[in-house]
Automatic annotation (TrEMBL):
Natural source organism: Flavobacterium pectinovorum
Name of the protein described by the UniProt record: Prenyltransferase
Keywords: Membrane, Transmembrane, Transmembrane helix
Residue intervals passing through the bilayer: 12-35, 41-61, 73-91, 97-117, 129-148, 163-182, 202-219, 225-241, 248-267
UniProt keyword annotation of Transport present: no
PROSITE patterns in the cross-refs: PROKAR_LIPOPROTEIN
Top-level taxonomic group: Bacteria
Amino acid sequence: MIVSKRILDFYLNSSIHVALSCYALVRITFHVFHIQYDEPMALFVFFGTIVGYNFVKYDALVRVKKKPIGIQLKIIAVLSFISLVMVGYYFFHLKRITQIISVGIFAITALYTLPFFPNRRNARNWAGVKIYIVAICWVGATLVLPIINAEIPFTPNFFVKCIQRFVLVFVLILVFEIIDLANDDPHLQTVPQTIGVKRTKILGFSLMVPFWVVGILTFDFHDLLINLIMVITLMLFIAFANPNRSKYYTSFWVESVPIFWWLMIVFL
């Protein structure tokens, strides 16, 4: 049991799980827009997520707080370095415009972590903007980049899917913010800190309804049914979210929603 927990903790702490979630969303993008599987694009996002998330999570811990590096963190550092090498490898297999846009997404990630402006906190600590920055990065990496690399023109359907993907990630983050309410710095002004847990849940429920309804115009019946199952599942996660929940509630189960969504598309 102890060994299993350590393996699970490493799997989550090393950002492999969140990387799989991003990979799943890329595969969903391929499915929705009928794009043939693009390995460089999918794995670029997968390894890039590991690098980006580990940079965000551990940069301040090591660079600013100067905390001692344990065995797990050393292994995560090695994994992150290998992932960085893979990111570089797949980067040069992408189209030039995709490379340029991906650099822009990386710049936003760096801004989220590093204080570029004198006497200012990094974007992660700017009041009220954290949720929007993360959602935009996810939409850019899992939807915009694959579309651009496949050279598919921007149509109204593309913008609808961007809004849907933004809403999905936004709601996922709402659940995280509810769970982290007791530990988040009050100056962050997260949604639950601003409007309370009950209203945050109502907001999440309200956003998921149009997320599914808009899909009626663009999905076939099979995908629409799968989306409905996914929406109901996420609504249940919202309903049962509270600050007393275990970290695994969000870091494993909630972040599994995109993976669950993709697996339903593949196997149902």
